[in-house]
From TrEMBL:
<dbReference type="InterPro" id="IPR032675">
    <property type="entry name" value="LRR_dom_sf"/>
</dbReference>
<protein>
    <recommendedName>
        <fullName>Leucine rich repeat protein</fullName>
    </recommendedName>
</protein>
Length: 273
């Protein structure tokens, strides 16, 4: 049975573009929906009744984004997926290694949940956007270096060496979340960066190097309560959008008027001081 509270939450973001979105079972698909309507599909195997991706998924001829549980990685096959598919989202936890013989060159966006996924460049050689959890040794950085990415999101960020290792991949957007880094030392290597999202870095205290990101247009800082020099933000001459959420007692109140005078297109400061 589907919990009604969960169902209500899903309905707000369900990918079935119908007049009345709802969670349905696989055996209802043919009678309930026109598969050509579907551009985003989430497979929710809540009770493990779905053991593999049904073969007819390749008939979803306009499918752009597919979300599956981690256990389905070993079940993926190129012939099962429609050629229109560009974004693959995988949810789960723990660790997993991508099958060595599974190559999906059409996928340009890969998003993983709270688990470590290891793959090679040849498995997904068309990637332009990647969201990934690093293992404790950040070994996947050696693979990431081989790409030319537009956007990269990393969790479990514990060493500043990441900034040097990703400096040549041409990033426009970077998100870093959950980790033990205390400064952004090395981020000046990312001189193409336009969007930076920093989330839940409880030890982060020093923002000084972001002042040298001359192309930075959007900055989001969330739940980083140890920052000691928020005034560095005032030096970002290209900044258009600023969001600061849940950053308490970091000295924002003393520079709030100056932030307000930056003539930003969008400014949002919530639960921060």
């Amino acid at each position: 049975m589907v919990d009604e509270k969960q169902k209500s939450a899903w309905q707000k973001t369900m990918p079935f573009f119908l007049e009345d979105p709802h969670v349905i079972s696989w055996n209802q698909i043919s009678e309930k929906i026109n598969k050509k309507q579907i551009t985003l599909l989430r497979i929710l195997s809540l009770d493990d009744t779905i053991l593999e991706i049904p073969e007819y998924i390749h008939t979803f001829s306009n499918l752009i984004e597919l979300e599956v549980p981690r256990k389905f990685i070993l079940k993926l096959e190129n012939k099962l997926l429609p050629s229109s598919l560009k974004t693959l989202c995988i949810t789960g936890n723990g660790q997993c290694t991508w099958p060595s013989n599974l190559n999906l060159p059409n996928i340009d966006t890969l998003k993983t949940g709270g688990f470590v996924l290891r793959f090679t460049h040849s498995n997904l050689n068309g990637l332009k956007n990647l969201v990934l959890k690093l293992d404790k040794n950040a070994t996947m950085l050696n693979v990431i270096q081989k790409y030319r990415l537009n956007s990269l999101g990393l969790t479990n960020v514990n060493k500043n060496e990441i900034f040097e290792k990703i400096s040549l991949i041409g990033l426009n957007q970077l998100g870093i979340a959950i980790g033990r880094i205390e400064s952004l030392s090395g981020i000046t290597n990312l001189n193409t960066l336009k969007i930076l999202n920093i989330t839940n870095l409880p030890r982060l205290s020093d923002l000084s190097e972001i002042q040298f990101l001359s192309k930075l247009e959007e900055l989001s800082i969330q739940y980083c309560n140890q920052i000691t020099n928020p005034e560095v933000i005032l030096k970002l001459s290209s900044l258009r959008k600023l969001e600061i959420v849940g950053c308490k007692n970091i000295g924002l109140n003393s520079i709030r008027e100056k932030i307000n005078s930056m003539n930003l297109e969008k400014l949002s400061i919530l639960g921060s001081s």
